[in-house]
Specification:
This protein has 225 residues and is of the alpha/beta class. Helix content is 44%, strand content 16%. The longest helix has 19 residues. The protein is globular and about 50 Å long. The two termini are 29 Å apart. Pyridoxal-5'-phosphate binds next to strand 8 and helix 9.
Length: 225
Amino acid sequence: MPSKTHAAVERFGIVRAEIEKAARAAGREPRSVTLVAITKTFAAEHILPVLESGHRVFGENRVQEAKAKWPALRERFPDIELHLVGPLQSNKAREAVALFDVIHTIDRPKIAAALAEEMAKQGRRPRLLVEINSGAEPQKAGVLPEAADAFLAECRMSYGLVIEGLMCIPPIHEPPAPHFALTAKIAKRNALKLLSMGMSADFSTAIAFGATHVRIGSAIFGPRR
Ligand SMILES: *Cc1c(COP(=O)(O)O)cnc(C)c1O
């Protein structure tokens, strides 16, 4: 045990406590909320203290960056669970299926098809979520809310994918609650159990609306450059 507690480990503990508090306030079990520590832009030396403290669930938003960073960390910590939370291009489907345990960002038929093909080829089955563009922002990835039910059916029927949940990133300048509520409603009517929503600024609100996975970066690792 290092004598000096690393800043990221300290902040991790504070975030963990806030998650517990938000879960209890919502009448939920704290264990029903998984903290995905988002490590994009941070090098292994910043991640290691959090790994050494016992956490194993991490997320990245780029396939290439994850590929450069995580295989070496996995050799030391084989039980790492790695989540892809950023947009996926179909030409990266092979690497994504090989590397990630959970993919949060399926949002179009081409990606669904590419993932289905790679999962069959590699015999690997990452858990899958569909991203909802809850604010219908033109620049943002994700399926429009009104197209979600049909896309979920297409994933299942045309590609044989088991989609377990939904993910959303609310518009940056709007209160997040209506977006979490809408995403939770779409999940409920499609009988999906996982809800990936809530980041450093709004995870307590997301937990009140049923988030099962909160994606937290800067509140743990500090500002990104
Ligand atoms: C970077 C990122 C996060 C973490 O954001 P913070 O505000 O630093 O907590 C969460 N989700 C996605 C999709 C991200 O790209």
